[in-house]
Design brief:
Elements: H1 2-33, E1 36-41, H2 50-62, E2 72-77, H3 85-94, E3 99-103, H4 104-114, E4 120-125, E5 144-148, H5 151-165, E6 171-176, H6 183-197, E7 200-205, H7 212-221, E8 226-229, H8 233-237, H9 239-248, E9 253-255, H10 258-262, E10 267-270, H11 273-288, E11 305-309, H12 310-316, H13 322-327, E12 330-332
Parallel strand pairs: 1-2, 1-3, 3-4, 4-5, 6-7, 6-8, 8-9, 9-10, 11-12
Antiparallel strand pairs: 10-11
Length: about 325
């Protein structure tokens, strides 16, 4: 009797194991047969980057795609280490995905070097023509299309908004990441805008979160009256830490993303990054339906949002002009 029970138990275990292996094999086979989409970003999934992947997935769902049923997504995260992007891009190419969504210029550059055949949908690239990614906005040519940003031109507008809140500011620290290919362009645009507004700029660099301490020590030593945080994936990931550094030194900040304002930055003006990732799904849809990246015009943002963190303003002892509050698209209280 005991032997029969033992044999029966063994058979059950074997049967369940076989079913599990068959199920996993079936799932793997089904996933391999689905259209594959690569998703490459310099950000970290556990530091906020996941919200942009969620926005992309939302865009896909709105177009009728359900992950695991009619589409497969392979996401790769560089965790703020730009030097990891080439190997991650090569990995996606080896997987033979149908299209790759690349966020920010470093990721686009890495994928561009890895393949000239797989279509690339870029997000968060300030000037794709100047960077050599596309021939023109109307007819990109090659295998890259997607959405561009106008962050460089927006630097001036952000300084204008900052001056509305802190009218007597004369020296503004520009916090940037020199490892970002857009950095030099952003600095030039900021300097041009600062001259018009009669503001002096102090460029302070941080390539890594560990450099935030020394960066803010330099900002404090220079007696800057505010901080302009230019767009960079690392600054989005560590928006709360930057906001804390600034708040402890009672420095108003104008930041490069809505997410950074929500994390404690004082002001933001510009297009929504989450919306850009949601819109990237429309390009993926067109490519999967047979459109060529070379023929898909680059989309530029048409909506710009003003976000004011009133909680941060109160902590800094600042009064936001009523006229500016009325113009705000979002007020964080």
């Amino acid at each position: 009797m005991h032997v029969a029970r033992f044999v029966a138990a063994v058979l059950v275990v074997v049967l369940l194991s076989t079913m599990f292996v068959v199920t996993r094999a079936t799932e793997a086979q089904r996933a391999a047969s689905l259209p594959g989409v690569g998703f490459l970003t310099p950000q970290s999934s556990d530091l906020g980057g996941e919200r942009f992947l969620r926005a992309f997935r939302q865009g896909l769902r709105e177009l009728g795609y359900v992950e695991g049923q009619n589409i497969a997504i392979e996401s790769r995260w560089a965790d703020g280490k730009y030097d990891r992007l080439p190997s991650l891009a090569a990995e996606l190419v080896r997987l033979k995905v149908n299209v790759i969504v690349a966020a920010t210029p470093p990721a686009v550059q890495a994928v561009k070097q890895a393949t000239n055949t797989i279509p690339i949908v870029m997000v968060g690239v300030f000037d794709p023509v100047a960077m050599g990614f596309v021939d023109s906005l109307a007819r990109p040519g090659g295998n890259i299309t997607g959405l561009s940003s106008v962050q460089s031109e927006l630097v001036g507008k952000r300084l204008e908004v900052l001056k509305e809140v802190v009218p007597n500011v004369s020296l503004v620290a520009l916090l940037g990441n020199p490892a970002n290919p857009n950095y030099a362009s952003l600095v030039r645009h900021a300097q041009d805008a600062a001259r018009v507004l009669k503001i002096r700029l102090q460029s302070v660099e941080a390539r890594d979160p560990r450099e935030f301490d020394s960066a803010f020590v330099a900002i404090t030593a220079a007696r800057a009256g505010a901080v302009l945080v230019v767009g960079d994936p690392m600054f989005v990931d560590y928006g709360a830490r930057i906001a804390d550094h600034a708040l402890r030194r009672r420095l108003p900040t104008v930041v490069g993303s809505i997410e950074s304002a929500e994390a404690g930055g004082l002001l933001f003006y510009g297009p929504s990054l989450s919306e850009a990732f949601r819109r990237a799904a429309t390009y993926v849809d067109k490519v999967l339906k047979g459109a060529k990246a070379a023929d898909l015009p680059i989309e530029q943002p048409v909506k710009f949002e003003l976000v004011i963190n009133l909680k941060t303003a109160k902590a800094l002892g600042l009064t936001i002009p009523q006229a500016l509050l009325q113009r705000a698209d979002q007020v964080i209280r």
